[in-house]
Design goal:
- The chain is built from 14 helices and 8 strands.
- It is of the alpha+beta class.
- It has a domain of 252 residues: Cytochrome P450 (Cytochrome p450, Orthogonal Bundle), CATH 1.10.630.
- The strands form 3 sheets. It has a 4-stranded mixed beta sheet with strand order 3-4-8-5.
- Strand 6 and strand 7 form a beta hairpin.
- The longest helix is centred in the middle third of the chain and has 32 residues.
- It is globular, with a radius of gyration of 26 Å.
- The termini are far apart.
- The relative contact order is 0.13.
- This is Cytochrome P450.
- One of its GO terms (molecular function) is oxidoreductase activity, acting on paired donors, with incorporation or reduction of molecular oxygen.
- Its cofactor is heme.
- It holds the Pfam family p450.
Length: 405
């Protein structure tokens, strides 16, 4: 008969101690760093993941709503209200702090916080967190989703140079105007053959390159640069960069056009008044030019309010912090994910009357291009920006240099 001997008291004590330590360490996984200030209650391992809504996250702005839990205790707390869960807490702070699994997240809920951190401290707030979709789509080669590596900086220099306001005014704008004129002529002549105009344009480009005829365009310049020694990235990197520039500009523009079509369907009087302003400035013999911008305050207000009312990117792409930082007595650790609550700030009931309405009064007489507003402190209602459609800081969309509202 086999006998079972009990472990010695020392061994039993050691095993119990290890078990208690293991349980303690597991419970610590969901515990917040007290230096980061108050935040919503967490659960082990998942921390705040269980609080993410299944639908309408950007409208409920779950991350911003979580700030309601910290408003009363956080020294950064404001006395205003912002978008939050329905029937949920409304008082918020400049920043909301929460934890999603192993990651710490700080959501910038206030325009001053965006300016203070992403604009003024862009050197340490310009990184990107690990984004799985970026690796899935391109192996990590997309400019907008890549971490701030040496290759990313070289790519950014290429894009920033070629899309700077000076380059756009001197080289690209006249090409855009010419192409728009040709396209509109084809569309007016053959309205049912919308795709035919694009097919014809592609055929012209292919024929021209096959014949060795060169045109003054950005891709031609970059191809020449690529053939020289010392070009900063590979052929694949070049292809990804050009594809991303085209997709990024086309998709966002198309989205904003759809937003304005929706606004015109809801408010036909706005469309009619905008058309009359265009006719008064341009007549019926020509299309609008960028030189007409100052003469069309109503059209400018339409475009800006579209960006404000239904932003293309309601939460913008996340930033990542390169090193530990402090902001108004709140500790932000290295690697923290920094998110801009664009939708919530656009629909802030303290800054905007009837914040959810399409209301041109917000921008009537506000004749500034988006690039002129970036980083400005006191414009319109004392806010640093007219809207956050292009993001903020060094990671701001380079398309903001294009003459745009």
């Amino acid at each position: 008969m086999m006998t079972i001997t009990s472990p010695s008291p020392a061994v039993a004590g050691l095993l119990c101690s290890l078990a208690v330590l293991a349980v303690y360490r597991i419970l610590q996984i969901g515990k917040r760093d007290p230096r980061m200030g108050p935040g919503p209650p967490t659960i082990p391992i998942l921390r705040n993941v269980h609080m993410i809504p299944r639908t309408g996250m950007f409208m409920q702005e779950v991350l911003l709503s979580l700030a309601g839990f910290m408003a009363s205790a956080n020294p950064m707390a404001l006395s205003d209200k912002r978008v939050g869960f329905e029937n949920g807490p409304k008082n918020t702070a400049r920043c909301s702090r929460s934890s999603w699994g192993p990651a710490n997240m700080v959501v910038l809920c206030d325009r001053k916080a965006v300016h203070d951190l992403l604009d003024k401290k862009s050197k340490i707030y310009s990184d990107r967190p690990e984004i799985y979709t970026g690796h899935l789509l391109s192996g990590g080669g997309l400019l907008s989703l890549s971490p701030a590596t040496a290759e990313w900086r070289e790519k950014w220099k290429v894009v920033a140079h070629n899309f700077s306001p000076k380059m756009l005014d001197e080289k690209h704008l006249k090409v855009q105007v010419a192409e728009v004129t040709v396209f509109m002529e084809s569309l007016l002549e053959y309205p049912k053959s919308f795709k035919a105009a694009w097919t014809e344009a592609r055929a012209r480009v292919e024929k021209r390159r096959a014949q060795g005829i060169r045109r003054d365009c950005i891709i031609e310049h970059l191809l020449d640069e690529y053939e020289r020694k010392g070009f900063p990235f590979t052929q694949r990197g070049f292809n990804l960069l050009m594809g991303e520039v085209m997709e990024g500009s086309a998709d966002t523009t198309a989205s904003q056009i759809c937003t304005l079509i929706l606004a015109f369907a809801l408010h036909p009087e706005v469309q009619e008044k905008g058309r009359k302003e265009v006719d008064a400035v341009c007549g019926t013999e020509r299309s609008p030019k960028w030189t007409d911008f100052q003469k069309m305050p109503y059209v400018n207000a339409i475009v800006k309010e579209g960006m404000h009312w239904q932003p293309t990117s309601p939460t913008a792409l996340p930033h990542a912090l390169k090193e530990d930082d402090w902001y108004e007595n709140m500790f932000i650790p290295k690697g923290a994910i920094i998110q801009i609550a664009s939708w919530a700030m656009h629909h802030d009931e303290n800054l905007f009357k009837n914040e959810d309405d399409f209301n041109l009064d917000r921008y009537i007489g506000y004749i500034r291009l988006a690039n002129d507003c970036a980083g400005i402190i006191l414009v319109m209602t004392g806010s640093p920006r007219d809207h956050f459609g292009y993001g903020a800081g060094r990671r701001m969309c380079p398309g903001i240099g294009n003459p745009s509202c």
